[in-house]
Amino acid sequence: MRRPGKVTVYDCFRHGRKRLDVDLVADIVTVLGGEGRRRLASGARATDGPRLGAGSGTVRASIPPPGELIGRDVELATVVASRARVVLISGPPGVGKTELALSAAARLQDTFERQVFVSLHGFDPHLPPADWQAVRAGVLRVLSPEASHSAHDAHSEADLLAAELKAHRTLVVLDDARDPAHVGPLLRSLCESHVVVTSRHRWVHPQVDELVLAPLDVEDAVRLLAGERHGASEPGARLELGRIATLCDRLPLQLSVAAAAIRDNPGWSLRDHRVRLESLPQHERVQRSVSVSFDGLEPALGRALRLVALHPGGELTLGAAVALLGDPEPAVAGFLSRLADCCLVTCTPVGTYRLHDVVRERPCAAVATWTRPR
After folding, report:
1. Of the candidates 97, 208, 265, 341, which lies 20 to 30 Å from 104 by C-alpha distance?
2. Closest residue by Cα to residue 85 from 20, 168, 171
3. Concatenated DSSP letters for 233-281?
4. Positive or negative, the Cα torsion across 192, 196, 200, 205?
């Protein structure tokens, strides 16, 4: 094994270091008595994902397939029909902004020659907001690697990207933007494309079509909450489901987690679930709902969620999950399928997996106090 120099090792732990030397870290762990060097290195590379570096966001050359969209037919038609160059979908966390943007992109697939998805990590609890220049470089790289390699400075990079976007009709989805200052310069670089932005903050701009996404109406919220389990199966079920939907603020994320809790606790009545939610302060309900689902997992499934939650960005592949867990692929696929059943991860039609940042907070916080079961 190559023996790293003292200065190299010191630099590896220097405060503020942004680039991870995976092999060097694996060597250090081995010297300190750690085991599984190969698995450690593959896991570290899996968590690094497709990002270009610290603060660069996640840039993909295709749009992730959307999940099921309930009660958003009018909003979806509005986004698809917009003729503005930039469409902003704003609203509170968990209201379904990303799913609406992905569904709109799927509808518009035949309208554009190319589609690009960028996660800007504007409100990610564990990653810095993406730097607009790094994102610009990433978009150019996925659209034209040859042009990216020929860019010798920021001006030539901007010119090359503009030429690429002008030559091919392109849809860009910018997910999780923090505010206009965060994404404004990037929008100017993408002026030759059609852009859909999602953000928790509203913007006021004459050239931007804004759709403020409201909570679901009661009927759709109850439909999402009930699924296939509850209808007339319990006396007063419709009334209790309506009350639970209201306690969940009729937000799709909270409703999905509550629906999973209802399904996975058949011994609880709907009234029991409603009383539990009523006992919580409003600001704690979504996190407590996630915690109830998380704490109810068997140890092996809880471990899987803790490790999967370490993956940066909003999406990971089965291969990345295998590297993170260190278990056989069939076992990992089984874990992910069961977590999807609990509404703690979302399985896309192409076999990748997504975690909402609100869901990720709870298992990531638990990593600090977790030891692997033997």
Report:
1. 341
2. 171
3. SSTTHHHHHHHHHHHTTT-HHHHHHHHHHHHH-TTS-HHHHHHHHHTS-
4. positive
How high is the pLDDT of residue 234? 66
Strand, coil or helix: 175: strand
Q: How far apart are CA 110 and CA 72, in angstroms?
A: 21
45-67, pLDDT tens digit by residue? 444 444 444 467 788 888 888 88
Cβ contacts of 143 within 8 Å, gap of 6 or more:
61, 114, 116, 161, 164, 165, 168, 170
Share of the chain above pLDDT 70, in %: 72
At 355, the amino acid letter reads L
- By the 8 A CB rule, do 80 and 107 touch? yes
Q: What DSSP assignment string belongs to 80-148?
A: HH--SSEEEEE--TTS-HHHHHHHHHHHTTTT-SEEEEEE--TT-SSSPPPPHHHHHHHHHHHH-HHHH
At 346 the three-state DSSP class reads strand
- Residue 312: pLDDT over 80: no
